Amino acid sequence: xxxxxxxxxxxxxxxxxxxxxxxxLIVPSAIFENVLEPILFLVNLFAGxxxxxxxxxxMWFGMAMLFVSAVVFAISTGxxxxxxxxxxxxxxxxxxxxxxxxxxILKQVWFAExxxxxxxxxxxxxxxxxxxxxxxxxxxxxLVIPGSFMGGALSGLGNNGLLAEELMYFSFITLMTIGxxxxxxxxxxxxxxxxxxxxxxxxxLVIITAVVVGKFLQQK
Length: 220
Known about the structure:
The protein contains eight helices and two strands. It has a two-stranded antiparallel ribbon. Helix 3 (29-51) crosses helix 5 (84-110), helix 4 packs antiparallel against helix 5 and helix 6 packs antiparallel against helix 8 (188-219). It has one domain (2-219). The chain has 220 residues and is mostly helical.
C-alpha cells in the first residue's frame, strides 16, 4: 500500500497540513479543535509514514508514533479524559514525529536532481512542518508553564481548546517574521523558543528555497 501511495507522498502530506491549518474556516472552531483537528493530525501522521516508508527504521518509528497518538486520542475522546499529562504525551509524540519527517523532507528536496512538482510540494510542506514543530514547542511550553504566552485571545482562555489555535497562529506568524505583537512570550523559555522559530524560518527561506530555485534555473 505504501508503495502505491509513495509517488503522491508530498501531495498527501501537504493537503492534510492545509486542512489542519485552515479547517476552522469551514467548521466551527469549537468542533474543529476538539474533534476534527486531532483526526486530521492522525491523517497527517499517516501521510508522514508514507513519506518515510522507504526507510524501514523511520517507518516503524512513524508507525509507533501514529499508534501512540491514536491511543491518546481514543482515551481523550472515548473516556472524556483531557488531562495535562495526556496532552504532554501527545505533543511530545507529534514533535518527535514532525522533526523526523521534516528532516527527511529536507533531504529529499535537497538531493533532488530535478525540480519537479513533487519537489515544489515538498518545499512547501517542509516549511509548513517547521511551523507545526514551532506550534508543538509553544503548546508544550504552555502546558508545562501556564501563562508563558500572553495577549490576544489567550487572555482568559485557560484550558479552552482555542488555546491550540492561538498558539498555532503565533508559531506561523513568528516563522514568517510578521510579528504583529498581539501575542507575546513572557517567560525566558517561551522567548528562546520564539527566537528559534523565527531563525528557523529565515534559514529555510534563505538556504533551502535558494537551493531549489538554483536547481530550477539550471535545468531551464
